[in-house]
Amino acid sequence: MSPLNWSVSVLAVVVAVSAPLPAMAQVQELGVMGADGVIRSEAEAEALAAARAPVEDPILPRILLKSQKEVAAVLGKPERCSKVKWGDECFYRNGQVKIIYIKGKADWITYNDPPGVGFYPVALTYLGVKCPMDLDKISFGGGLYTWNGTCPGLHTAVLVPGAGQAPNDPDNRRLGYVYIKALTP
Predict the structure, then answer these.
(1) What does the pLDDT average to over 47-62?
(2) Angstrom distances, CA of residue 167 to CA of 13, 52, 101, 106
(3) Distance between CA 80 and CA 77 in Å, rounded?
(4) Are strands 169-181 and 156-166 parallel, antiparallel or unpaired?
(5) Sign of the CA dihedral 101, 103, 106, 111?
(6) 43 exposure class (CB count in 10 Å sphere: 0-12, 13-18, 19+)
(7) Cα–Cα–Cα angle for 183, 111, 163, nearest 5°?
(8) Is the entire prediction scored with pTM above 0.70?
(9) C-alpha count within 13 angstroms, C-beta hemisphere, residue 61
(10) For residue 35, what are the contacts with CB-CB under 8 A and spacing of at least 6?
(11) Distance between CA atoms of 182 and 14, rounded to whole angstroms?
């Protein structure tokens, strides 16, 4: 954040803190006060809550090292599968998820454009994969975040930036995709 943005943010906080709070009757008349202190109509508050709600439970922990049948229960039937050098390669959800099954398990996974996720190391946690956020265990080379053997239960995890801004965060990029190799290097 630039010093100018920082000072504008501080000014906004000072103005917000110093603004008089409405009387309880006014709050009830106007609608619902959100956690951010903004009073909205009930319809606005419900729409905001719905927009912030997760689209679905994180899919990665539900598909990592699972069989094709177990993955299909989470993602639906694959659009297409083909034999590749390492095993079966299958595509799901209009190509959003690509899985290479090695020894019958979802081992290499590419998850393109996960909904609502910014390009941060903590994005893996948001996606349901628990990797250490210790900076000594994350490689930052080439504009990527990479865990090589430092994420429990995984061989490799890579976050790749995408185009455009992250939702609700104009200072950051979207997460383009996450690539995981669970067991096989």
Answers:
(1) 66
(2) 22, 10, 32, 29
(3) 9
(4) antiparallel
(5) negative
(6) exposed
(7) 135
(8) no
(9) 12
(10) none
(11) 48
